């Protein structure tokens, strides 16, 4: 999933200096790219994407979770 994350970050010119509010605006779009409809697979893809943001792009944990939330948007628990 790092390829999807890398392309998304570069296409949208996201940086680790952006605010949580700015990053959260992109959450629905990147989640659409990362989700397949299989919850267990989706969870792993989201984790891998957050890891890529933190390790590859030096985003903080809070920034990574603002961009890629733990749960899918609109999902009922």
Folded structure, characterized:
The chain has 77 residues and is an all-alpha fold. It has one domain (2-67). The chain has five helices and no strands. The protein has helices at 2-12, 20-24, 27-34, 39-56, 61-67. Helix 1 packs across helix 4. The longest helix is centred in the middle third of the chain and has 18 residues, at 39-56. The radius of gyration is 11 Å and the shape is globular. The termini are far apart. The model has no long low-confidence stretch (mean pLDDT 89).
Q: Helix and strand string, N-terminal first?
A: HHHHH
Count of helical segments?
Answer: 5
Instruction: Give the end-to-end Cα distance, rounded to a whole number of Å.
Output: 25 Å
Total beta strand runs: 0
The major β-sheet equals: none
Characterize the overall form: globular
Could you tell me the mean pLDDT? 89
Task: Output the radius of gyration.
Answer: 11 Å
> Structural class of the helix and strand makeup?
mainly alpha
Strand content: under 5%
* Tally of individual domains: 1
Low-confidence runs: none
Helix share bin: 55-70%
Features:
single chain, 77 residues, mainly alpha, 64% helix, globular
SSE layout:
Blueprint: H1 2-12, H2 20-24, H3 27-34, H4 39-56, H5 61-67
Helix pairs in contact: 1-4, 4-5
Quick structural gist:
With 77 residues, this protein is mainly α. It has five helices and no strands. α4 (39-56) crosses α5.
């Amino acid at each position: 999933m790092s390829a999807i994350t890398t392309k998304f970050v570069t296409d949208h010119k996201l940086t680790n200096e952006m605010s949580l509010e700015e990053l959260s605006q992109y959450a629905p779009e990147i989640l659409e790219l990362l989700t397949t409809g299989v919850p267990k697979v989706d969870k792993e893809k989201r984790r891998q994407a957050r890891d890529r943001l933190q390790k590859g792009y030096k985003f903080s944990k809070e920034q990574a979770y603002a961009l890629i939330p733990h749960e899918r948007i609109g999902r009922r628990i």
